[in-house]
Structures are given as C-alpha cells and as structure tokens.
Batch of 3 targets.
Target 1
Amino acid sequence: MLSYQHAYHAGNFADVHKHLTLYSVNNYLLRKKTAITYVDTHAGRGLYPLATKETQRLQEYREGIWPLWQKRDQLTDPLLTDWMDVLTGAQPAPSELTHYPGSPWWFGKSLRTQDQLRLFELHPGEHQHLAAQELATQARRIYGDGLDGLSTMLPVATPRLCVLIDPSFERKAEYQEVADAVAYTFEKARHGVVLVWYPLLPAGHHHVLLDALKTSGVRKIWRSELLLRELGEQTHGMYGSGMLVINPPWGLDERLEAAMAQLTPYLGDESRYEAQWWVEE
Ligand code: SAM
C-alpha cells in the first residue's frame, strides 16, 4: 500500500539538489545529437501547484526553492541562473513562483524528436495526476512498477540511456532493490547515465544502498550530498539529500560544485554540500 505523496514535499531542498543535478546532467547529454532514452522510474505527479492543501501543510519549499527564487536576481552562477530561467518558464505568470515542476517536467522540457521518455508511477492517484499533464508525444506514462519496468526495457534501442531512480523508500527493502536495479542496468547498458536519489535519515538506511553498490561491480559512481543541517541529536526527519550519478558526464562535479557554493548559504547557516567518487573508474 503506497501512502507517500510528493506534493507534501514539493520544492524542498532535496528537490533542488535532485533537479539541479538532473538538469545539469541533461545539459551535458544534449551536447550530442544521438538519441537518448530517458527513464523516470518513480515519476510522481509531474507538476506541483504550491497552493494545494498538501504542499501548504508542510511548506517544505520554504526551506528549498523559495529562498533561491526570492534572491534570483542576485544569483550569478551560470548553471543556477539558467536553471532559474527554465523554472520561470514553468510559471503561468513569470514574476510569481506558483508551481514547482517535478522530474517528468524537467525531462520533458528538453525532449528532441529523436528522444524517448518513459515515466513509471505506481500510485493510482499520482498516476492520474501525471496522465493529466501536458507532455511531448515522445513521453509515455506507464502505470506500473518502475524498477521492473526499467529491467524489461534493457537494453534500449537508442544509443544513449539516462535513468532517474527516485523512490519514496517507504519500505526498507527498497535500498537493496535500487542497488540491484543499478547493477542490472550497468550490466545491460554499461555507458548509461543513472541518477539515484536517497534520503539522509538518522536511521542511516542509505548505507545499505551505498555498501551494496560498492561491492556490486558497478564502476564510476559519483556521490554528492546536500545537508540542510548536521545529524546531531535529532532522532527523526530528513537532514540531508543524497545523489549518486553513475557514468557522470565529464565536468559535472565542478559545474555543480560552483552552483552549490552559491546556493547553500540560501538554505541556512548549517547547510553544506560535499561530493566525491564513491567508486572510481
Ligand atoms: N521523481 C519525482 C520528482 O522528482 O518529481 C518524485 C517521485 S516521489 C519521491 C516517489 C514516487 O514514486 C511517488 O509518486 C510514489 O507513488 C511512486 N512509487 C512508489 N513506489 C513505486 C514503484 N514501485 N514504481 C513506480 N512508482 C512508485
């Protein structure tokens, strides 16, 4: 039984980390003309109006996209200013932040005729929302399990592959399942770019994912973490956001490092970013 709904968390600091990384990876991939199959294994709704009851309940965007948006005129980093321009394009009225776009939107906005996009969503209500979104014709929305769906697609027909695995981690077993899915993808599409998001929680379950990948045989795993606060004494709640990029485009680390250096002060005094290879070539 799925209960997670991303609308409660839309636009939070983890979304900023995830979508800025995704946007930057995609910018690199778009430098070549060869076709890409994009797979979003856990797509969510696609677009989140901030005024909804769900998003207003926790207002997590106030510790995420909101402070950045308000200071957008002061941003100078080219990746950040570019990303903000694209975010502005998602707003019905460009001067006001009323909607936060999810991964299907970030993937969908740069699709070229030669590319494909597969969006998997297993929650019936979330899938209905996703089905109502306006997306390019190359985008297919599939009501089903994302990791199973990904495995049946491999190897893909296009020369390149880019996957986002962004589960809700409602079950502890998902950390191992994600590691297995990454290993299988690497076996079938060795050069595919795979992004995995994971939460930093006091229970530390993400170590299951990280440790499993370390010994899986998958190479070139780059890891970045955006911490909102230090772990400290707290016993619950997400204190940081983690991303793995398998086969990261060359230059991605420096690009994001520069953007995050400008971004983190807007997320609070304790906020910090760190990145390094988890598994090298
Ligand atoms: N990727 C989205 C974004 O960046 O905007 C957010 C996704 S949210 C963290 C996780 C989503 O995965 C939820 O909408 C949930 O219903 C869905 N989900 C949970 N288990 C799933 C599964 N096995 N296959 C596909 N979707 C699943």
Target 2
Amino acid sequence: EDGYKLWLRYNRITNKAVAAEYRSFLSAVYFPSTSPTATVAKQEIETASIGLLEARLRLASSVEQATLIVATPRTCPELGDLEQTKALSKLGKDGFMVFTAKLKGKQRLVVVANEDVGLLYGVFKLLTELQNGVHLKSIFISDYPKIENRILNHWDNLDGSVERGYAGNSIFKWEELPKRIDPRYIDYARANASIGINGTVLNNVNANSKILSTAYIAKVKALANVLRLYGIRVYLTAKFTAPMELGGLKTADPLNEDVKKWWKEKIAEIYQAIPDFGGFCVKANSEGQPGPQDYGRSHAQGANLLADLLKPHNGLLMWRAFVYNNKASDDRVVEAYNEFKPLDGQFSSNVLLQVKNGPIDFQPREPFNPLFGAMPNTQLMLEVQITQEYLGFDKHLVYLAPLFEECLQADTYAWGKGATISKVISKKISAGQQTAIAGVANVGNIKNWTGHPFGQANWFAFGRLAWNPDLTSADIAKEWLGLTFSNDPKFINTALDMMMNSREAAVDYMTPLGLTMLMDVSHYRPAPWRRDKPAPVLSAESFHRADRLGIGYDRSSAGSKATAQYQTPLKEIFDDPKSCPEKYLLWFHHVSWDFKLKSGLPVWDGLCRHYYQGVEQVAKMADQWNQLGPFVDAEQFKKVQSLLTTQHEEATLWRDANVLYFQSLSNRPIPAVLTPPGRSLDEVKALLKTQGSR
Ligand code: BDP
C-alpha cells in the first residue's frame, strides 16, 4: 500500500453475505446518459465493481434488465414517476438520491439526479456506502450541497514549487502541458469529485501574471478539459499588475480605460478557450502584492473592475480579505476588519470576499474572524488551510476537521443568536449571489499525495464540510477511517480517539490559552524568543507580549479594541478576562502570571500544564497507534508509527522551548506535579540551531 488510492481503494469485500447482496444489485447496470460526466461515473462503478466484487459490470439496455439504474428523469422517465423522486427537483444540479424501489415489478437500486454531475456525486456516495459495508435493501439517501462552490486553492507556482506545500512538487506539470496529460490529473479529479469539490484555483495567490499569457491559457485549457469531466471548474489567480507585465501598459489603475480594455480582452480570450472558466482569485495589497490601493483606489474598486468584466461570462471573483497593510493600528488582528468593514455593500454581485477563519493567519487556534459577523451586505466565503503550515507540516498528525468545525459552528450573532459561520457562508445575501468556501490544498506530487498518511483525512474532511458545513468532525473521521484503513469497530474506536484529540494536542504543545505566532520563520519550529528585523510586527514577542509581570496581548477595550469588532454579547464576553473563554484568554488579554484560571491555578501553572498535556497526548496517540497494527497495511503502519515518534520528539521540543523561555521571564518554578525539562533553554536553542529550519 502506498496510499496513492486515497479513500477510493475499492478493496475486495470479504464478508460473503454483504458481497452477495452487492453482487445481486450490481449485476446489470442501466446507465442511459452518455455525456462525458455520465461516462466517467459509469467507469467509476466499473472500477469499483472489479475491486470490491471482482465482477465485471454488465450493462443493461433497459429498466427491465437492470438491477441498478443510474439516470436522470430525463433519460429514464420511469424514475420521474416514483414517489421517492417527488422532491428531487429541490436538490438542485448537484443533488442526488440513492434508494431501492420496486420498478416494473422488481426491487432495483436507483441513483437518480437532476443533472449528470449529480449522478456522479450519487455514484460516489453509493460507492462510499459499499466500501463501508452498508446494507442496500433499505438504503435511502437524499443529499445536496449546502454551498455551491467548493474550491481548492493551490498555492502552486509555475516552476513546480508549492508555497507552504510539504508533499513534494506541484501535481500540475506546466512544462508538459498542453501536450501531455498526466494520468494523475484524472485521479486528482476523481478524488475531488468523490468528496464534492467542484472548483480548483490552479496557482498561487502570490501570483505570476504569466499564467494569463496566451501560451499558459492553452495549458490551463488542457487541464480544464480533464477536470470538467468530473464537474470541476478551473480558476486562476490574477496579478493586479498583469496589464503592465503582459500588456505593456504604464498603469494598472482599475479606473483607467486602457486597463479595463486589457482585462476585458484577456477575460474574453480565457472564456474563448474555457467556456466554463470559474473566475479569478485575487490577493491584492497584501504582503507585497500589487493592488488598487497603489493607485489610490479601494479594494472594492479593484474587485469590481474584474468582477464586472467576468459577470457576462458567469465568472466569479474571489477577493481575499487577508491584508495587514493598514497603518492605522499596529495590531495585525484588527486590520482586515478595519479595511473591509467600511466597504460593506460596495462589491459587485459576483464578488465573494474570501475571509480566513481567523483574523491572523491559520494558527493552531484563533477566535473566528469578526468580518463574518460584520458585513451583511457582502457575500462572504470562508478560507481554511488544509496544508499544515503552522501545524507541523507533513510530520505531525493533526486532524483539522475539529478546527474547521469550531469555526463553522462559531456563532457570530450577525442576526442574533444562531448566526453561525456555517449559516453566514451558506446564505445568499440576495438571489443573484453565489455561495463558496475554499481550502488551501495540501496536495503534491509525492506518491501518497499529502505526505503524512493522515493528511489525506484533512483533504477529505474539507470536501465533506464544504458540501455540508454542519457535518461533525467525528462523523467525517469515521467515514474516512473506514474507507482508508478498516471499518472494524475496534480499529475505528481507537483511531477516532487519536484523530479527535490530535488538534487540541497541537494547540497544547504549540500555542495554548490563546497564544499565537510562536514559531520560527519557517513556521515549523518553536521560537517564542523571535525578534525579527526589520519587521517587528512579525516577531513572536510582539504577539505574546510576555514580560516579568505577565503574558498576553491586550486586545480589550483598554488595548487594541479587537473585542469591539465582535457582535454583542461576544464583545462583552471577550472583553472581560473573567468571562473570556480560556482558550482565547491570552489572545484578548494581558494578564499577570498570577491570574487565576477557572481551575484555580495561576496562569503560569496552567500554561505549563497545557504544554505538558500536549506532549502526553501525543504519547498516548503513539500508544494507541501501536495497538492498531493488525488492522493496517504494514507499510502504512510503520510510516505513521515513525511519524508519531518524530511528532513526540518535536512536541517535547515545543514544550521545552516555550516553558523554559517563559520561565526566563516569569521566574517561577515549573509546577511540582510536572517533571522539569531535562535541558536548559540554551540547550534547546542550540539543538534547534543544529536542526536548521525546514
Ligand atoms: C500565509 C502564508 C503565505 C501566504 C499567505 C496568504 O505564510 O505564504 O502567501 O498566508 O494567505 O499563511 O496569502
């Protein structure tokens, strides 16, 4: 097992009774649609049937001959007459149903949808059920996505490198395109479609305008032709100064007529090649990227220039809200809100403002980004990071769905109680809008796609939550474990526990109690002492603000006023250190080392305990994994085992670095119940130096 097949393994079903039931339902398939998408759905059933049942699929040419029918009511009118399909039209273009029904005198298995892409999703759902051994006799599934555009963001560069990518190089081989189509593109598309992902931004937000050149459009077209079969639209990032770099113009001012004309023609050229092109994703005036503010224009003016030109082609414009250039405050946390809140209502209807889950940057834990409760007249989309930039790269087992879930289920109070982020992003602010969600991909060209075998779970979970943001992380983990390793309950129970505790463990050994940004420049190793020049706002010290007397960043009404960016009652809850949830305490407050936690312990003791708890949890994960050998392929088992050993060593290093560094400020002993680190701060620093940065 090399992990290449992801969760689409289609391993032989060993339970004889189950296999017999499946064989009886899969013996003859009636599949009247002949579109390219229907054809790949049919191929998928063929592949699965060979794997699961060692049976070649027989095609039926009518309902009478079929045991399984996969069709729309248009191609198979008998399905439209069924009681079960009455509500089908409400499921939209991507929705589907899977059930058994009596048709022409016999029980038959049915996958039905309004469109062929819905059939594809229905087929994948059916195959998931088969892989997990579900009984078919009484199956009834009716499902549709709650978010229309479910998008992966690749931070892939045209030279094949991947920004914050840890799983090898880009899967997109630009130098070979458009001539050679790597078969891997097809497996990438299958994997995405199987979890409902229907869009992909092919290149880095730190954009290279070359992607918009005629030569590259031909390459993008070749990729789009493959991905389209699986219901996936391609998007590109657009560099704001492309009219200058590619078009030779003197300016990229969004109000300049020549600039407008250049974009208009460029967009027309793209749609000529790729009629279903998804649109652009733009990072502007952020971390050195050019943007409208370079010309004295607002983010809305910049976004609308492109959006209005994309609109006649049904294109979307995803404008990122990740900015921290606003000089009005030196607290990065308040900047995006200050920048974008005043623009609420000024964006064209096909603009989606792409907002990261937290106000800083994909940290192990952040309170949710207050923009989600603050822009009722702007269509917001959520951006999460699947690649583990701040969470141990491809080395640490950190199941991210609990982090995504924590954000999606956070109540913004945007329209009173119950206005969760899940609801904010799945609600259209007016009929002409579209809803969307994006995840920064963790996919690369190494054999198993994601490096850490459990990294696959994060890709899977993103897709499942994009489809239904109210799913629970535990249910998704169970589903993934069953598809990937084994659905033996003994295996699932233990492995689930590992996964579900893994994110909290990472928070504990990296940044507990609301601490943040304690890592080195690579974002991998601990460096709470970091003092970067010439950018003090990026140094760790400027985030934790620890000194002799206490620790934490005062973002209350007495400090940077970040708490005021939340709706009532959150702003009041966050504003008072007594009511502020402890997981955000040091995010919003600077408190003395003696500040009493709910446990009665002083903050200093609580902090140390969290660091130790994180390491203990990783040790527990390693023990748990050791029990799972009998259920897992030997190669995968060993790989995870050795990664957990590394994670334990590194978690310990994180703990020791932070506990010892903060001790050098607090001047307090390590609480007696804990065993002090067996090394000094200088030794830890020296060790880190020898390891270099990754
Ligand atoms: C940060 C990454 C940086 C990205 C940036 C972004 O460190 O590489 O370019 O986010 O989202 O997390 O634009």
Target 3
Amino acid sequence: MTRKIVDVDVLVTSPSRNFVTLKITTDDGIVGWGDATLNGRELSVASYLRDHLGPALLGRDADRIEDTWQYFYKGAYWRRGPVTMAAIGAIDLALWDIKGKALGVPVYQLLGGAARDKILTYTHATGWDLPELLDSVDQRREQGFRAVRAQSGVPGLDKVYGVTKGAASYEPAGRGAGPVEEDWDTAAYLRHAPKILSAVREHVGPELKLLHDVHHRLNPTEAARLARSLEDVDLFWLEDVTPAENQRLLRTLRQQTTIPLAIGEVFNTVWDAELLITERLIDYIRTAVVHAGGISHVRKILAFAEVYQIKGAPHGPSDVSPINLSASLHLGLATSNFAIQEYMGYDPAVSEVFQSSFRFEDGYLHPGDEPGLGVQVDEDAAARFPYTQAYLPIARELDGSMKDW
Ligand code: GCO
Ligand code: MG
C-alpha cells in the first residue's frame, strides 16, 4: 500500500517574523506541515523547495520518511549546508506529521513514546542595565519559567544584539534591504558581563537556572577569561562562546573551566558536530530540527551525542515557526538525552496563522496529544501577512572592521 504525494505547496508569511512553511498533501487527503524557515535567507529555501524538491516529491510514497530523506540528501550531490538541510528538514517534518495523522497518534509516539513527562524550557530576559534586566528576569519567573537566559547592554555601546536601550522588547531582525549595523567592544563586554551576571545570581538565589549567550563574539583566550570569571555564578550554560568553525580551539578552553558549554544552533548535519561530540568539547548540542534535516537527522545527532553524555537543547527562537517548536517537543519528549527547550513565545499574530497544541505550564512544555505534530496552519491568515525583507543586525569592532557573529 502506498500513500502518494499529490500536491506540494510553499507558503511564505510574515506575522511579525518571516516564516517559510511547506504543505504536503497525499492522495488520501492528509495534509502535513513542515517548517523551512532560515532567518534572513527565507526565499532561498522557498525556491529550493518550489523549484527542485517539490516536483520530485510528487508521486512519491509519503510513508517512506527515511527513504525520502536519503533520496534528497544523497541524491543532491551537493550535500549539507543550511538551505539544503532546511528544505530537507521541512519535508521530513511534513512526512512525520502525515504519518502521525494517518495512524491517529502524536509524533512522539512514533518515536518510541514519552521518555519524560514534560520538557524543561528556558526563555530570554533582557535589560539594558541591571535594574531593567532584574525586572525582566522577575517577569519571567512570575510567568513560571525555571530557566532564564540573561542578556544585558554594554557600557559605552548604544545597542547590543537583541538588547535595546529603554526598549523591553526583543527585536532581533530589522526590516529593510540590508542589516542594521551595531558597534561591538569586546573589552567592555568582558569587564561588564561577569558583574551583571553575578548580580543576577545574587538577586535570584541558587535555584533558577541561568544561561548566557555570547553569540560567537570571543576568541578562545577571551572565552576562557570570561568563563573563569563566571565560575561562581553557577551558569546552566554559556552559549556560542567562539565562532563555531575551528572547533579544535575549544580543547584549551575546556581545560580552563567547568562551566557547561552549549554550541550548535548554526549546524546543519552531524558532521558539523562530530569533533565537538567525540572529544566532548560541549555539554549541550543546540541544533534545531528545522535547520538540520528534520526529526530524522536530529534524532541521529542526539543518539550519537548520547554515547558521549552530551544532551540535546535545540535552538528555538521566535524566528523559526511553531511547527519547528512542536517537532522539537515531540523529539524531546521521546529522547532520553534531551535537556531543555528554548522557548520565547510568539507575537499574537503568529497564533492567527499557526494554531499549536503544545502547552506551557510551570516552566515546562508538552507537545500535546493531537495526531501528527499538532499544528494547524490557517492559509487565509498567512496570506494577510506578506513577506518583507528582514535581516539580523551585524556588528563591527570600534575600528569599523566586521565582527564575528
Ligand atoms: C538564540 C539565538 C538567537 C539567534 C537568532 C538567529 O540562542 O536564540 O542565538 O539569538 O541569534 O535566533 O536567527
Ligand atoms: Mg544562541
């Protein structure tokens, strides 16, 4: 028996953020949804799906998820890379959604069933100065969060990625033809960050899990200095301390600190993480299902990481769609070495387009028990929010040279 794919459609919608959504329909009328959002490069993935993979999907058996994954991964000749892997990831999510709906079970049941009752989640707190940051952290605690990522401004700068003077909201991407440019000052950051994070720890006491994201801005020496000065803050993790390309450099950093390290949100395949995993240079792997070939590939990354006592903690910002979040939660519920899920919530307009069955309670998330991934997409609502170009800001050193992301 086969379940034939009869229609493939790609929606690009912008209810506050640009999201690329894949819709696959089968000959028995089942619709599966996948997320294909690659922040700032959305249309490249949409074209990859519309122009190359979509036509090849027509007539294929929707039930053959692994074979379809291998067909597109091995069959492309040009393997890996964010655009390719996001496109394959979207197909993978849509096919898991279809299989769940066809069998009447939530996707986590197809992955082996629940390995935990609920998924610990962390959110973002931001404030330009300490009082604003503490207010933001307190708000998050009042909302029930048990784990919070704390980011602040830096004295001498006007803006730091994701934190704006006097603005409570998080505005990571600016609309327009090119990215906004920000200044960056490593020395000022290194002087300031330990003080502010120590003050946050003192304010919240020992229980709250505190995280901090460096966004690839340091070299290994600077990262070691920062980590050593933060040892007493008891961070749950320090994220993306250095650019992720030259991973051998992290060997020396690991000898300098016991702070857990989290890396991987820009990775697309297991090959991007192989050294980090086999040498255990990280404690948490951050790869998101949407960006690394979907559930089928990320669960292999997590199985590989499990052997090295590394846990999954996927990227889950508001700039990928609720379909990605749901897929991550199904995977997380069914995976024993899954630690925590990033969750920032969404603009209300996002819920007009994506209705999701996941629920947040008391600092934990659960994907819900609807068949498939549990996300309905309202295509009329999606059409009301057309795509507009938007990009993450870039940063320059004080002398005007480009800074690493
Ligand atoms: C995170 C990320 C974000 C990214 C953004 C890129 O940990 O959530 O680092 O802050 O910059 O999601 O698309
Ligand atoms: Mg990050």
